[in-house]
Specification:
alpha/beta, Rossmann fold, UDP-N-acetylmuramoyl-L-alanine:D-glutamate ligase, Protein-Tyrosine Phosphatase, Chain A, 3 domains, nine-stranded mixed sheet, six-stranded mixed sheet, globular
């Protein structure tokens, strides 16, 4: 730990967690935020006790560099933000909150990244780790800050860590026992600018691995499969399409582990409550984590048989007049929405889409909308661009909604069996909501308020 002060940049969940952990260790911490904000009294007292404080605005930042030796970035702070570049030019070490958590923890980590499926996979892995005879936790992009989650984990513990590209940008020593890459499709280009830069951030999850660590890659994703050459860890592929000579794969509906000349069947897809090809991939990746962490086959099977969809990801809400409603608010990009559409094999979907536009390509999604959807209801900032793309792809039944509530009402007015109503926005939520969970909760409330 550096002796000079630490600047924690960003006062969100990750930043507040990191600042508290450091202050409780006696470190002088300045929690900096661009805009004025509030923190709870306990954290303010802990910062003050070590000579630190909450600071915001350019004037507040100006006096911090001479006091500090390190800057810890919250995920929402871009690496090219002016204050970050200023700190690097001044000679401060700039690291992510994930890197801080890693340095504070001496135990085992299974780290999971990818454009889609991270939360579901990490949640399943967390449930599997609970079956181990040692303490475990879940953290990173899910739950509390990584540095908070590892605070009381012993060196023989296991952490399941969901990691975004933002969190992986500024890692240096980070080296998980198991690194998983689920997939890679266009997302967050407003921050990374190019797919190459986005992919390079993701690769940081396994860059420092060696022969003692495991790199788990999606064999069915050509880009991710090719990343094996960039890892020095042991490569374990997973696939739902190919029977692998070694790895985790599906065969006749079974989830199969074939490793070290031994073959084990965990369970069958028909035993699970999850549906959709994307969830088959998530389960395969979770099995890889459980297997290499030492979870028994029987325990993994039991976890999978009892696992239900996470909130906001193809979450069943209610059936009204014979029509089921699903909340997929976590679909914040087109690839995630495509996976949701593919999960409904019979189609007849009334799709609610739109929100804050990430400017990703729309043609692949709209081609599938034409095939799968009886109606497309568009809302939010993105609705005009989505409308033009849908028309260009031959989608016929398109409606524009004036509000979120209006979109739900329009779906309710037309929905008849065997249709399903699906919220899968393919956009982030920032035009109308704080985040996708708030959007999902709003959708569920509106659906639950509809008359039967």
């Amino acid at each position: 730990m550096v002796q000079k002060a630490v600047i924690v940049y960003g006062a969100g969940i990750s930043g507040r967690g990191a600042a508290q952990v450091l202050a409780q260790r006696g470190q002088q911490v300045f929690l900096y935020n661009d805009a004025p904000c509030e923190i709870d009294a306990e954290l303010a007292q802990e910062l003050a006790a070590c000579g630190g404080a909450l600071v915001f605005g350019p004037k507040g930042f100006a006096g911090l560099l001479a006091k500090a030796g390190q800057m810890v970035l919250s995920p929402g702070v871009p690496c090219d933000a002016p204050h970050v570049l200023e700190a690097e030019n001044y000679g401060l070490e700039v690291i992510s909150e994930i890197e801080l958590g890693y340095r504070l923890y001496g135990g085992h980590i299974a780290a999971i990244t990818g454009t889609n499926g991270k939360t579901t996979t990490t949640t399943i892995v967390g449930e599997m780790f609970k079956r181990l005879p040692v303490p475990s936790a879940v953290g990173g992009n899910i739950g509390l800050a990584l540095s908070k989650e590892v605070e009381h984990l012993p060196d023989n513990g296991w952490l399941a860590a969901e990691l975004s590209s933002f969190q992986l940008e500024k890692v240096k020593d980070f080296c998980p026992d198991i690194a998983v890459v689920l997939n890679l499709t266009p997302d967050h280009l407003e921050r990374h600018r190019t797919m190459k830069a986005y992919g390079e951030a993701k690769k940081n999850i396994f860059r420092r691995q060696g022969p003692q660590q495991i790199t788990v890659l999606n064999y069915d994703d050509p880009e991710v499969r090719g990343w094996a050459a960039a890892s020095k860890g042991q490569i374990c592929y997973f696939s739902r399409k190919a029977c692998l000579n070694a790895g985790i794969f599906m065969q006749n509906g079974n989830f199969v582990i074939k490793w070290n000349n031994t073959t084990n069947v965990v369970c069958n897809i028909d035993e699970l409550h999850l549906f959709g090809g994307h969830n088959e991939e998530n389960v395969l990746a979770a099995i890889a984590c459980g297997y290499f962490a030492g979870v028994s086959i029987a325990d993994m099977a039991d976890v999978l048989r009892n696992f239900h969809s996470i909130e906001h990801r193809l979450e069943y809400v209610r059936t009204i007049k014979g029509v089921p409603y699903y909340n997929d608010s976590k679909a914040t990009n087109t690839d995630s929405a495509i996976k949701a559409l593919e999960a409904f094999k019979d189609g007849h979907i009334i799709l609610l889409a739109g929100g804050h536009d990430k400017l990703t390509e729309l043609e692949p999604m709209m081609r599938l909308v034409k095939e799968k959807c009886d109606a497309l209801i568009l809302l939010g900032e993105a609705k005009e661009r989505f409308y033009r793309a849908a028309v260009d792809c031959g989608v016929e039944h398109i409606l524009l909604a004036d509000s979120f509530e209006d979109a739900v009402r329009q779906a309710y007015a037309m929905a008849l069996p065997p249709q399903v109503v699906l919220l899968s926005p393919a956009c982030s939520s920032y035009d109308m909501f704080k985040n996708y969970p708030e959007r999902g909760r709003c959708f569920k409330q509106l659906v639950n308020d509809l008359p039967q």
